[in-house]
């Protein structure tokens, strides 16, 4: 009998400091997102082997062809790891991010009509009015003498209000009230829960895949801070979701567009077609998912954009000039349209560049559900000197797929891939690359059947917010403040030496001369 080949044994990789914890403690304990990923990729190439807890071997890759194979070509054959998925369930319940296989297909079918390009373009005026309400608050603060704000908190309040109105026709009131129940529940949610986990939790979670689901679900009741904060968030979001559904049924919420998310979800509850049905708990979980995925991500990306623009004031000025020049060409009082926003070449290049350099979700975990051969664009050399152009893997093989490393591959982005350089997106002579991501060929929104459903929503919202704040304000890093990119599952900003203060991006904000 021919034994099946398994290339994983032959892969090189960093030494594992412990059998019990493998490289897991180093990875989760990195001072900043990507430190180890980038160093290891430089040493071992785009594909190598790391160790997880209990001696488990994980293939780490940022290889473009491998990512294309795993996310696109293989459709549902690389499901999320069972333990990671339970963590998702702890936060958002049985929504679309948690759902797998056929169940995921059903969720996606229900949700797709709320995310068509046409539907999302119609949200632009809403994004603009939300941005301008926030900017008015900033002007008031500056006039009152307060010039240093935690912009990440403000942006999260603004995007929370926008998702509330866009998805549910409902104003959470987060811009007007910093104490709103939902915004308070989001504060430091990831920093308090996923950042720097204790060893017991790493070892415990690595065993989750062996626990039958009905028993595993009980982990959400573990009485420590991580589990409690997620439980409280989920309970609050579902309670709000239920109230919104009831208000809609009573006619208290105006009929918006017939395809808005709440209507789409409402239809799924009464649909005759089993492929388009969601039960009540799935609907509430979906609303919880949208409340979370639909605002923090966009707000964080913009936070990092403002940070980079502080570090590159000349780019900040170029962007402002571009926006103000367009404004000067329009009759006064007219708002920018989607076509106007898309015409801001330099501004859009900066948006792509920040999504490249600071992907909010830095990596994704997957498992092969069958034996497979994975093609590689960047061949690797094994310990015994063999060159591999493909990987033979066995069913059950775990993968760590590094978005942040792919987004910085010199072979894809050029030799200056580690640096901020928006002009790379203006260079039309760049070679054609293996097609992966939905936007600018980045992996930031993931890809394939489980790629981000909200990427267009995010891009339009980012454009609207960026234009509003850069047109009216100037940003600078306060003296002595060093910002860090903390690995809290998602990437969060904190101030070096002030981590006890939690997630923040304090920037000095002043009025731009009109
Ligand atoms: C810059 C902003 C955003 C980034 C970087 C981002 C990134 C991602 C990534 C990496 C995934 C894949 C997660 C996984 O496989 O576990 C994802 C999925 C998802 N995102 Fe986004 N996202 C953004 C904005 C949004 C917005 C605005 C919405 C909703 C309005 C949204 C809704 C979702 C949903 C529902 C999924 C699950 C899709 C599925 O499993 O089918 N995202 N996003």
Automatic annotation (TrEMBL):
Major localisation: membrane
Gene Ontology molecular function terms on file: heme binding; iron ion binding; monooxygenase activity; oxidoreductase activity, acting on paired donors, with incorporation or reduction of molecular oxygen
Record keyword Transferase present: no
Subcellular location field: Membrane
Q: Which biological pathway?
A: Secondary metabolite biosynthesis; terpenoid biosynthesis
Q: Which domain of life is it from?
A: Eukaryota
According to the UniProt record, one GO cellular component term is:
membrane
Q: Which InterPro entries match?
A: Cyt_P450, Cyt_P450_CS, Cyt_P450_E_grp-I, Cyt_P450_sf, Cytochrome_P450_monoxygenase
UniProt: heme binding residues: 452
Q: Does the keyword Oxidoreductase apply?
A: yes
**What cofactors does the UniProt entry give for this protein?**
heme
PROSITE patterns of this UniProt entry? CYTOCHROME_P450
Q: Which UniProt keywords apply?
A: Heme, Iron, Membrane, Metal-binding, Monooxygenase, Oxidoreductase, Signal, Transmembrane, Transmembrane helix
Task: Check the record and name the Gene3D superfamilies matching this protein.
Answer: Cytochrome P450
Which family would the database say this protein is a member of? Belongs to the cytochrome P450 family.
Instruction: From the Swiss-Prot or TrEMBL record, give the protein name.
Output: Cytochrome P450
